[in-house]
Design brief:
Elements (H helix, E strand, L loop, with lengths): L1 H4 L1 E6 L4 H8 L13 E8 L2 E7 L12 E4 L5 E5 L2 E4 L17 E6 L5 E5 L4 E5 L2 E4 L12 E2 L5 E6 L6 E6 L4 E3 L16 E5 L5 E5 L7 E5 L4 E3 L10 E7 L5 E7 L7 E8 L2 E5 L22 E5 L5 E5 L5 E3 L4 E3 L9 E6 L5 E5 L4 E4 L6
Antiparallel strand pairs: 1-2, 2-3, 3-29, 4-5, 5-6, 7-8, 8-9, 9-10, 11-12, 12-13, 13-14, 15-16, 16-17, 17-18, 19-20, 20-21, 21-22, 23-24, 24-25, 25-26, 27-28, 28-29
Amino acid sequence: MHQALSRRARVPARGLALALALAVGWPLGAVSSTDEPELEVEVIGEGIERVLADSVGHRFDRRPLRDVAIAPDGTVWLVQGRRILQLDQPGSTGPRSDRWQHFVRRIELTPDGELWAVEDGGTVVRLTEGVLEDRSDGRRSTGGSLAAFPDGELGRTVRGEEGLVPVVSTNDGASWQELPSAGLEWLLGPGLARHVLARTDDGRTWIGVDRGPLGGGLAVFDGTAWTPVEVVAGTRDLRVAAVVPGDEGSVWALAQVGQPGGQGRHVLIRLHEGGISVLGEEQGMPQDTSLAWISWSPLEPIALAVDARGRVWFSVGDIGVWVYDGDGFERVRTPALRAGALDIEAAADGHVWVVSRAGQLLRLDEAAHP
């Protein structure tokens, strides 16, 4: 079936539905022609396309990509080494870091479409009139941290005055202000770690760590103080690798529980007003066959996203890319994603963009993954 579907075509950048409908026999009543720019794509599975190039000359099958972000207006931004590209914008080059060997690690977009990025060295930059400006305010982000919040602020962790304990900061577009760090000593400490942040629509700020003084964990800030979140009864030893907001003040987290090594297991967690739901191996959560996180690295690719329908897309270790719809787990079946993903982003139109572990750009059609 894969060979039958695999072919190259040029289709509208935001109108891939026509090609997919022809490929899998969906009705064409809702599909109309557009004047949108075209993408050169290869259909590699049911509802799955590999983007090879856009209409202005960017090619994505020759130099690997690292990250993808979707603006509120549907604009697609990509990271390729030290360069940031905007899909279907004229020119073969885009804004790039002028710090040699400082590759862009991740990009974040605020609700008004403002682009921010964090580099491997921890420098935070903002795209202003085509130039990446250093907006770190003299302090580099720790744990690769940078997150855009729904209210337009951003979050990251930096080194505090003591020199060892990072503190959480937010950004109002002009300067950084520290949040209180009391109550985070058990969570944030010296050494390599991944720090992930999110803010839910009720105004609470969440921070997760996959390696800390007590092994890792999750905490929430209610505007006054930080509170540890005990997900597994009797322990805070929860190695949190990703957090994203859900609906109605809920938050999703991707983590590992149990002792590092053969006893460790991946879990998908939903924290909501009614309590905590932990989806583990017994509930069908896929597990690593190689347990790649034994040789732990803060750069190990982790991806987590929630789409417009509330479905959760994720990838960690060598499990591939999966989607959880509230009833069960389904794997996205294509050889291109067998090794997993570097990044997953859900667009407002319901489609999902993925950067594979090989640095390829894929777009998944929601209709093929009900």
